[in-house]
Amino acid sequence: MRTIPVSGRRGAFVCGDATFHSGTFSIHSPQDMKDVMTQIHGSTQRDDIVPILDVDSFDRRYLNTDLIKELRLRGRRLWLISYVRSVDDIIDTMCGAFDRLCVPYHSIDDPDVLIEAHELTECVIPTIFVKEGKDAITGDPVDPILGSFRRMGYNEYALFDVDGCELTYCGPMTDLTIVS
Hints:
Elements: E1 4-7, E2 14-21, E3 24-32, H1 33-43, E4 49-54, H2 55-60, H3 65-70, E5 77-81, H4 87-93, E6 98-104, H5 112-120, E7 124-131, E8 134-135, H6 143-151, E9 157-161, E10 166-170
Parallel strand pairs: 1-4, 4-5, 5-6, 6-7, 7-9
Antiparallel strand pairs: 1-2, 2-3, 7-8, 9-10
């Protein structure tokens, strides 16, 4: 799934191409977010999934609540990829217009966060940032991390390719229409 990188604060959000370096993202060729969302709305169907990458949350290492409050795309299923440290962050995202929250494994304070999240809501998708098939942060293979997701009770996960800004959903749901 092609992901839409978003950066900014209330009233001044931009979208653009993102590059990943040392755990953070930067946006190139920024465009006004409202213009981009209008284009996406016109080029997608009702109930399509539109993944959103919260660029600023990775730079600041905390959840960008302004984006959660502000971003809406009527008739589309928004998935948020954001820096999440705690269960409180997960609860904060439930106040927004996002159907699913992709929680990067490297951002959480403790693996227990994913266990608690799984008990709290079905909206969380544990996510691994990958580069050339390996964990983009550590360079390690992803199989041990996937095993830990299964032990936590998850039967779905996502891989986020940091080079292509692509989200790959791996799970039991087969009725998903993916925006590419």
